[in-house]
Design goal:
By secondary structure, the chain is an alpha/beta fold. It has helices at about 1-5, 40-45, 115-120, 145-155, 180-185, and strands spanning about 15-20, 30-35, 55, 60-65, 70-75, 80, 85, 90-95, 100-105, 125-130, 160-165, 195. A 7-stranded mixed β-sheet has the order 4-5-8-9-10-11-12. A 3-stranded parallel β-sheet has the order 1-2-3. Strands 6-7 form a two-stranded antiparallel sheet. Strand 9 (about 100-105), helix 3 and strand 10 form a beta-alpha-beta unit. It starts with a helix and ends in a 26-residue tail after the last strand.
Length: about 220
């Protein structure tokens, strides 16, 4: 990782993807630059991802890219388990930092004091993307409720919040749209702006963020 920090990596002709844990994504394998936590890189190689585009990091490591972009690998609260393999790879969140803005992605994570500590260390974030779906009392240490995500956004000092790990699939007992409803309620009169784009809808940032409507209410 130190070698990556010294020489820098060109991202001018590529897109970048970050993975909080061992979750396969089969896309255009040669197109992206992939950031992942410790132990996950070997799985990406096995799945056929180009080795030279896989960047693996431990908590609190930072990877400096050209154009003054820094990727910080940060703590997340989640176990790692697939089949007979348990807790042999790391889960992580990420902060993307430039001279102009800071963005935080929690990855899959339960609520904990690490959000406040990260917010203090970075002095707040322009945007936070936080796990707030697929929650269950049995999984309280690995996934946040919408109310916990709202508190985490405040802990992080986020100016804006986008719900993540929500809306695309259902593995918990709650209705698919419940996280949106609960997060909207929990975000009333908070210091951050709640952003709820549809899946794939771009978020445009200028002096203020784009505005979105409650699109889930139109789906029956």
């Amino acid at each position: 990782m130190a070698q990556l920090q010294r020489r820098g990596i060109s991202i001018s002709d590529t897109n970048t993807a970050v993975f909080s844990g061992r979750q396969p994504l089969f896309s255009n394998l040669g197109r992206f630059l992939y950031f992942c936590p410790l132990g996950v890189g070997a799985y990406f190689e096995y799945w056929g991802y180009p080795k030279q585009k896989i960047l693996e990091g431990d908590w609190f490591e930072r990877i400096a890219l050209e154009k003054d972009v820094i990727v910080h690998v940060l703590p997340a609260r989640h176990y790692s388990e697939r089949l007979l393999s348990k807790n042999k790879t790391l889960w992580a969140g990420f902060a993307l930092e430039t001279a102009a803005q800071r963005i935080f992605f929690s990855g899959d994570s339960g609520y904990g004091p690490h959000f406040f500590e990260i917010g203090e260390a970075f002095g707040g974030f322009d945007l936070a993307l936080l796990d707030c779906g697929q929650y269950d009392p049995r999984w309280s240490y690995i996934h946040m409720t919408p109310e916990e995500a709202a508190q985490a956004a405040r802990d992080l000092g986020a100016r804006a919040l986008i719900p993540a790990h929500v809306g695309r699939f259902t593995i918990a007992n709650h209705p698919w749209d419940e996280p949106f409803k609960r997060l909207t309620e929990a975000s009333q009169d908070k210091s951050y702006q709640l952003l709820t784009p549809k899946i794939g809808e771009p978020v445009m940032q200028g002096d203020t963020f784009s505005q979105f409507y409650s699109w889930w209410t139109d789906i029956r």
